[in-house]
Amino acid sequence: MLGGLQKIGKALMLPIAVLPAAGLLNRLGADDVFNVPFIHSGGAALFTFLSLLFAIGISIGLSKDNSGAAGLNGAIVFLILNFGVIGVNSSINMGVFAGFIAGLVAPILYNYLYDKKIFGNQEFFDGKHVAIIINAILALLLVLVFGIAWPTIQGWLDAINGWITSAGAFGASVFGILNRALIPTGLHHVLNTYLWFGYGDFVDAAGQMVHGDINRFFAGDPTAGTFQVGFFPIMMFGLPGAAFAMYLASKKKNRPEVGGMMLSLAITAFLTGITEPIEFTFMFIAPFLYGIHAILTGVSMFVTNLLGIKLGFTFSAGAIDFGLNFTKGHNAWQLIPIGLIFALIYFVLFYFIIKKFDLKTPGREDETEESLAMEMPNASVQTASAALGATEADLPENGKVDKYEQMARGYLGGLGGEDNLVKIDNCTTRLRLQVKDADMLNEAALKKSGARGVVKINKENVQIIVGADVEFVADKMRDMTGK
């Protein structure tokens, strides 16, 4: 089940990746920025048709060949489902859930048929085309099921809405804690989907009904931002404060290397809101610290909502989104002093706990466990490759490998070799890998190759936390293995 949910979480990243573009167009074209209506309308259109983007993106993400044909399957199922249920019950509005369901269902048949030759060598009626036709027919069954069942499901969702609304700042706090708690498994994307893209209703200026905390914020709903605003103090200030604490707590001889790494991670978190690279430097080494981090995230969600602050984001709660959306928020300036307070809290707690309990955060490892990753940048190719288990025969003719190829070779060695690797996927910061036997992993070798964390979901699904370079590393691994 975790393996399946992991795949769904990864698939969700494809349509979610559209949001920064949507937010940029929406804000830059707004009347309080550059006042260019056609740019603003273009961004608003992406939010309006987010359900369709979910259907296409999730279908591609869950398909075995990541083909555009899989996306077309998802789009067709979505259109039939979304508008078909209205014919059953005109009051039904499934919103983003229609796209989510279509994206989950359409790849099932597609993955079975996509490589089949149903009618010999006739290309037009190959498996991909047949899957489209059959999915269109089977989508009618979804229309009947959800046309009858959705009013009941909607009643349950409305009850959840009612609890969340009545819980106010406390409900936002619970969401913040759960959001961080699920980071190790990558399932936080699944949790986010409902609140960010399905929760709440708002009619925008054009008369369109929009759903979800993110969509409603950009449509001008003054109550939106509840489940976003509390992340800004943590991502822009709190975790950079933790990074500074880990730098000062490291051994003096290791501080130059640790400082360079922590500075890059802190700047990434501050500007973009991508925090996983920092979180995975202490998540498994010090689970107690990570528990404190999750609780502090909940506290930030509680405080910001209690004060009535409102602000939203397109991708994550970094300075870029803060600057772009500042004028749409309410009392957003208060996030800066609140953030500075959280930076101080994180710094003091992390520094004290790391020193008090001698936690082996970066730069504090025992001499026998010193990370090769800190020495690798200045090592020769032959030395590095030998340390990672590569032979001279594995090296290019010129004897040189670039940074990403070097990391890819190291990861392949740490994964138990190419024969143990089944499939390579990635999201924003992680390699999401399917292996034959997770027990064959050498976590020490993976970390020496630059991994900031290793997560074993089960015997066949693992994750390697890489950081912002993950896509380049994944591409190198695919080139090397063909997987």
Automatic annotation (TrEMBL):
Q: Where in the cell is it found?
A: Cell membrane
Name the residues annotated as catalytic in the UniProt entry. C427
Q: Which residues cross the membrane?
A: 12-30, 42-62, 69-88, 94-113, 133-153, 159-178, 230-249, 258-274, 280-299, 332-354
Q: Which residues form the PTS EIIC type-1 domain?
A: 1-366
What membrane topology does this protein have? Answer: Multi-pass membrane protein
Note the InterPro entries from the entry.
Answer: Glu_permease_IIB, PTrfase_EIIB_Cys, PTS_EIIC, PTS_EIIC_1, PTS_Glucose_EIICBA, PTS_IIB_1
Q: Where is the PTS EIIB type-1 domain?
A: 405-483
Transmembrane recorded as keyword: yes
**Keywords for this protein:** Cell membrane, Kinase, Membrane, Phosphotransferase system, Sugar transport, Transferase, Transmembrane, Transmembrane helix, Transport
Q: Does the keyword Nucleus apply?
A: no
Q: Please name the NCBIfam families in this protein's record.
A: EIIB_glc (TIGR00826)
Q: Under which name does UniProt file this protein?
A: PTS system N-acetyl glucosamine specific transporter subunits IIABC
Upper lineage is: Bacteria, Bacillati, Bacillota, Bacilli, Bacillales
